[in-house]
C-alpha cells in the first residue's frame, strides 16, 4: 500500500467521526462473522469480494476502508479500520463491501486518468452510490439525487457566508444529479462549472485542516469540536482512495484487469445459475454483462442479416419551399427498422456461463432493435417481446435436449406471417441440421463450440471467440 500524504478530502474526515465505534462495539465486532453474513445476503458481490485479501489497518492511515491494486504481487487488497467498521450496522457494512467491490469491477483502482483526482474521486463515489440502497450507506457520503443533511441554526451561525454558500451550492448540485450514470458522466458534470470544482477543493482544504480526534458528535448527531462548538464539513468520499493508479501500467495493469474480468464473469455465471443477485439492481446487471460480453457488432450484423429492409413507420412531413412564401410541399419520411426473433438454446449442453454471454449480447442488441425472445430446447417456450433498451434477462426455464428444427419451424412461421423480418438461433451448435429456410436465418455460437454441420449458404453464422471479437 502506498503511503498517504496525510491530507483529507471532504468526507474522509466527516465519515469516520459520524461512524465511530464505542468500546462495546469494538469488543463485539468480528470481521469473519460479518463476511459470512455478507456471503448469504449478497452472493453475487461475495463472489467478487473473496478475491481480495482483507487486511485490518492498525496504522491509522485508513480511517474507513479502501481497496487497492498491488502491482508487485498482482493482487487486490481491502484495508479496513475496525473503529469505523464496528460502528456500522450489518446493512451498512454490507453496503461498504458492495461499494469496494464496485470500485474493483469498474476498474477505479487501476485506472486513474481523470484529473483532478479529487473530482474523479467524487465522480467515482457518485457512480457507485447510485447502485447501493441508501439505507446501506454510512453517513457522510455522496448520493445522487439526495441533498446534504439540513443545517441546524447553530451550524449556520457558526459558518462564514462563503462556507454557507459553498455548502448550499454543492448540496443543490448533488440533489439535482440523476442516478445510474458512469464515473465519466459525473466527472464531466462536476467540471462543467469552474465554481463547483473550486468549492469542492476549498471544502477539502478546510476538512484537511481538521483532526478527527478533535471532533465530536453530540446527542443530536451533530458535529462539534472538543469545546462543543458547531462544526460543518461538506460530505464527500466515504472510503479511502489513496494509491489508486499509482505505479500501475503496462503488463501489470493488463493482468490485474484480466483478473477482475475473470472474477466478474465467474460471479455473473453463478448468480445467473442460481438467480441469486442479492440487492444488485437490474440496470447494473445489464451493465455488468456488457463488461464480459464478446461485443458482437450488432449494427453491422443487422444491416447484413435483416438489411433494415422493412419500413414499418411512415411519418408525414412538410418541406418549406421558400422562407419568404408561406406553406410548403407535403412529403413522407420512412423510418427503417428491423424486428427479429431470437431463439436462445437453454438445453442441458449449454452451460450457465455460455448462457450468460448470450444474454449479454442480447442486452447489446436491444440498443439497436426490437426483438422477441424465445427459450428453447426440444420445444419453443413462450415468447417475450423487448422494446429497444428495455431488455431484462429472464430466468433459465429449460434444460432438456436440443432440437434446432423446433426453433427453425417456429421462426419460419413468424416470418411467413410477417411478424418478424428474420430470426436468429443462439446456441452451442451441438445438434443436427434443420431443413433449409426461405427466410433470413442466423446463428450465434458460443466460444469454444461450433456448428456440427455445414450451414446453408443463405445463413449467417457468428462465431463468438474468447478474445472479445466476433
Topology summary:
Layout lengths: L13 H5 L4 H6 L2 H11 L1 H7 L2 E5 L8 E6 L4 E6 L1 H4 L4 H16 L11 H13 L23 H6 L2 H16 L6 H9 L2 H15 L6 E3 L5 E3 L24 H25 L7 H11 L5 H8 L5 E9 L9 E8 L2 E7 L6 H14 L4 E7 L7 E3 L17 H13 L5 E6 L12 E6 L14 E4 L7
Parallel strand pairs: 1-3, 8-9, 8-11, 11-12, 12-13
Antiparallel strand pairs: 2-3, 4-5, 6-7, 9-10
Task: Report on this structure.
The protein is an alpha/beta fold and 470 residues long. The chain folds into two domains: 14-263, no CATH class; 298-307 and 339-463, 3-Layer(aba) Sandwich (Rossmann fold), CATH 3.40.50. The protein is 38% helix and 16% strand. It is built from 16 helices and 13 strands. The protein has helices spanning 14-18, 23-28, 31-41, 43-49, 82-85, 90-105, 117-129, 153-158, 161-176, 183-191, 194-208, 250-274, 282-292, 298-305, 352-365, 404-416; strands at residues 52-56, 65-70, 75-80, 215-217, 223-225, 311-319, 329-336, 339-345, 370-376, 384-386, 422-427, 440-445, 460-463. The strands form four sheets. Strands 10-9-8-11-12-13 form a six-stranded mixed sheet, sandwiched between helices. A three-stranded mixed sheet has the order 1-3-2. A hairpin with a 5-residue loop joins strand 4 and strand 5 (223-225). Helix 4 (43-49) packs antiparallel against helix 12 (250-274). The longest helix is centred in the middle third of the chain and has 25 residues, at 250-274. The radius of gyration is 27 Å and the shape is elongated. The two termini are 39 Å apart. 39% of the residues are buried.
Amino acid at each position: 500500500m502506498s503511503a498517504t500524504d496525510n491530507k483529507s478530502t471532504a468526507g474522509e474526515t466527516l465519515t469516520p467521526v459520524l461512524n465511530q465505534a464505542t468500546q462495546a462495539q469494538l469488543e463485539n465486532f468480528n470481521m469473519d462473522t460479518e463476511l459470512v453474513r455478507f456471503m448469504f445476503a449478497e452472493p453475487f458481490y461475495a463472489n467478487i469480494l473473496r478475491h481480495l485479501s482483507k487486511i485490518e489497518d492498525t496504522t491509522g492511515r485508513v480511517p474507513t476502508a479502501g481497496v487497492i491494486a498491488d502491482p508487485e504481487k498482482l493482487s487486490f487488497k481491502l484495508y479496513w479500520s475496525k473503529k469505523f467498521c464496528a460502528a456500522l450496522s450489518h446493512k451498512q457494512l454490507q453496503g461498504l463491501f458492495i461499494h469496494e467491490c464496485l470500485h474493483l469491477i469498474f476498474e477505479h483502482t487501476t485506472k486513474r486518468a481523470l484529473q483532478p483526482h479529487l473530482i474523479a474521486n467524487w465522480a467515482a463515489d457518485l457512480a457507485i452510490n447510485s447502485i447501493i440502497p441508501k439505507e446501506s450507506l454510512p453517513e457522510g457520503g455522496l448520493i445522487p439525487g439526495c441533498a446534504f443533511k439540513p443545517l441546524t441554526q447553530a451550524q449556520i451561525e457558526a459558518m462564514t457566508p462563503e462556507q454557507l454558500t459553498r455548502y448550499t451550492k454543492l448540496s443543490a448540485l448533488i440533489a439535482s444529479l440523476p442516478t445510474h450514470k458512469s464515473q465519466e458522466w459525473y466527472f464531466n458534470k462536476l467540471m462543467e462549472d469552474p465554481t463547483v470544482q473550486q468549492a469542492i477543493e476549498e471544502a477539502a482544504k478546510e476538512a484537511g485542516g481538521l483532526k478527527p480526534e478533535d471532533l465530536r458528535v453530540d446527542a443530536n448527531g451533530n458535529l462539534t469540536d472538543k469545546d462543543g462548538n458547531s462544526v460543518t464539513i461538506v460530505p464527500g468520499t466515504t472510503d479511502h482512495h489513496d494509491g489508486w493508479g499509482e505505479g500501475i501500467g503496462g503488463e501489470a495493469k493488463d493482468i490485474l484487469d484480466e483478473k477482475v474480468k475473470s472474477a466478474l464473469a465467474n460471479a455473473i455465471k453463478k448468480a445467473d445459475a442460481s438467480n441469486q443477485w442479492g440487492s444488485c439492481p437490474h440496470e447494473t446487471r445489464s451493465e455488468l454483462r456488457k463488461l464480459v460480453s464478446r461485443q458482437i457488432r450488432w449494427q453491422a450484423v443487422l444491416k447484413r442479416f435483416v438489411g433494415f429492409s422493412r419500413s414499418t413507420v411512415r411519418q408525414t412531413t412538410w418541406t418549406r419551399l421558400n422562407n419568404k412564401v408561406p406553406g410548403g410541399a407535403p412529403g413522407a419520411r420512412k423510418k427503417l427498422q428491423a424486428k427479429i426473433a431470437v431463439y436462445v438454446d437453454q438445453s442441458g449442453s449449454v452451460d450457465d456461463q455460455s448462457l450468460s454471454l448470450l444474454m449479454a449480447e442480447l442486452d447489446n442488441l436491444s440498443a439497436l432493435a426490437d426483438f422477441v425472445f424465445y427459450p428453447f430446447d426440444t420445444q419453443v417456450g413462450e415468447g417475450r417481446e423487448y422494446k429497444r433498451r428495455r431488455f431484462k434477462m429472464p430466468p433459465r426455464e429449460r434444460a432438456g435436449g436440443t432440437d434446432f428444427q423446433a426453433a427453425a419451424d417456429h421462426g419460419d412461421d413468424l416470418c411467413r406471417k410477417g411478424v418478424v423480418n428474420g430470426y436468429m438461433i443462439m446456441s452451442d451448435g451441438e445438434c443436427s441440421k434443420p431443413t433449409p429456410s426461405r427466410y433470413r436465418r442466423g446463428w450465434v455460437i458460443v466460444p469454444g463450440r461450433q456448428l456440427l454441420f455445414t450451414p446453408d449458404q443463405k445463413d449467417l453464422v457468428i462465431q463468438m471467440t474468447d478474445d472479445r471479437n466476433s
